[in-house]
Design a protein that fits this description.
Layout (H helix, E strand, L loop, with lengths): L2 H4 L8 H40 L19 H11 L13
């Protein structure tokens, strides 16, 4: 036989280390995708600001609206709206023109 025929086949890799390698690669891929999504969002915000400034506008920064309170129910909001309505006859202090 030749030299090539005398070689013994290599033993298969340890399955445990292959699973760990796959998990590490998956984690790296997830981090890479998340970084790409964040980068695209940031680039879109910068582009919007540059477009605004390029048109000669002022106050091109983003304006954050305060979050709406979630501790009141729809019924409570309707009651508050009815109390604040100046044309509501039930709210004794409202004046009619």
């Amino acid at each position: 036989m030749t030299e090539e025929g005398d070689r013994k086949p290599e033993p298969p890799e340890d399955e445990g280390s292959r699973a760990i390698e796959n998990i590490v690669m998956l984690g790296f891929f997830v981090v890479l995708v998340a970084a790409g999504i964040w980068l695209l969002g940031t680039m879109a915000d910068v582009r919007k600001a540059q477009d605004c400034a390029g048109q000669g506008r002022r106050n091109c920064g983003t304006i954050e609206a305060p979050a709406r309170r979630q501790d009141t129910t729809d019924e409570q909001r309707e009651n508050q709206d009815a109390e604040n309505n100046p044309f509501n006859s039930a709210g004794g202090s409202a004046r009619r023109p």
